[in-house]
Design goal:
21% of the residues lie in helices and 34% in strands. The protein is an alpha+beta fold and 262 residues long. The protein has 2 domains: 9-113, Nuclear Transport Factor 2, Chain: A; 131-244, Nuclear Transport Factor 2, Chain: A (Roll). A 5-stranded mixed β-sheet has the order 1-5-4-3-2, covered by helices on one side. The protein has a 5-stranded mixed β-sheet with strand order 6-10-9-8-7, with helices on one face. The longest helix is centred in the middle third of the chain and has 17 residues, at 134-150. The model has no long low-confidence stretch (mean pLDDT 95). Residues 147-238 form the SnoaL-like domain. It comes from Winogradskyella echinorum. This is Nuclear transport factor 2 family protein.
Length: 262
């Protein structure tokens, strides 16, 4: 008797992303052909839009190495090292219905050299722990972004961290709260403002939490994807991808950059 091996949603996503490199046709069957809502504004809607990206691959194709993958209810979110029309780091979010992918969001940024603390945009631990603390960790991250980044309540900042023990993977910021403070000071001197207006979605699995927010950077509408590792109720590590939101005239779909279902 044949045993059907059940493929998890997380495994489906990792296989689908890898198929952009390998050309494997099987993982495309994990997308619902009748309903695939695309929130990458540079890609057309539906399965046809996904196919068009593959057809327009540069000579030598794409390279895809998914570093981290997480599952939260009907969502899977990943952090991937791409060569996608040039070396990039990306976060992808997929929503499932009845075992099939029906919706996709992402943020991409060009790959940068290591920061002044020696961390790259993707290194660090990948081990998922504290599954029983997922909801508490999501709440912590949501409160941090609303308190500090949206509402500017800087007097609450230190309460979210264990002293200066904070590993930073943003290419322009050094480790620790001290590094964050220096970066914000430098930006202020240059007249660059980083504003967070709305948190659209918070997803998590155990000690890892991804927050997806909207705001502006240097006056440009910006999508912020921030991945945090939480340890003992404090923020311990941070990776991020900021992407400028393209104007409506250049968009290939009308689904919006966010618009997560309730």
């Amino acid at each position: 008797m044949e045993t059907q091996i059940k493929v998890s949603n997380k495994e489906k996503v990792v296989a689908l992303l890898k198929s952009m490199e390998t050309g494997d046709k099987t993982p495309v069957s994990y997308i619902n052909p009748e309903k695939y809502i695309q929130h990458n504004l540079a890609v057309a809607d539906g399965l046809a839009g996904f196919g068009a990206v593959l057809e327009n691959a540069p000579e030598g194709g794409f390279k895809v190495n998914t570093i981290r993958a997480f599952e939260d209810g009907h969502y899977v979110f990943t952090q991937t090292d791409y060569d996608f029309f040039g070396p990039k780091i990306g976060f992808d979010v997929f929503r499932f219905e009845n075992g099939l992918i029906v919706e996709h969001w992402d943020n991409l940024i060009e790959k940068q050299p290591a920061n002044s603390s020696g961390h790259t945009q993707i290194d660090g631990t990948t081990t998922i722990t504290d599954l029983d603390k997922t909801e508490a960790n999501k709440t912590l991250v949501l409160n941090f972004i609303n308190d500090i980044l949206v509402n500017g309540k800087m007097e609450k900042l230190q309460g979210y961290f264990n002293g200066d023990n904070y590993i930073q993977h943003n290419p322009n910021i050094a480790d620790g709260l001290s590094g964050l403070g220096q970066a914000l000071e430098t930006m202020a001197k240059q007249g660059i403002r980083m504003e967070f207006d709305t948190v659209h979605k918070v997803l998590g699995q155990g000690n890892f939490v991804l927050a997806i927010s909207e705001g502006s950077f240097a006056g440009e509408p910006t999508s912020y994807y921030d991945l945090f590792r939480v340890e003992d109720g404090k923020i311990a590590e941070h990776w991020d991808v900021m992407e400028t939101i393209i104007p409506e005239t250049n968009r290939k779909n009308t689904n919006g950059k966010f618009n997560f279902p309730n």
